[in-house]
Design goal:
Elements: H1 6-36, H2 40-71
Length: 76
Amino acid sequence: VRPAYHGLASSMLALMRNLGQAVSMSVVTLILTRETAAVPLYTDAVLSALHLSFTILTILCFFAIFASLARGSQQG
């Protein structure tokens, strides 16, 4: 990639990584829900675990957002 397009290439790489992570997580969640639908007790346990995991990770993401904002711009 020519130096003039390094920023564009970097952003495309980041987009593809994030898109891959999001799609793979949704596929895994879809598989888990379809495979556990036959056993109600197991389904409840898996869904409860996923709910708890996503809740904890959401809270951690908010902490990371505020920590990043508090740090401010570091130019120099």
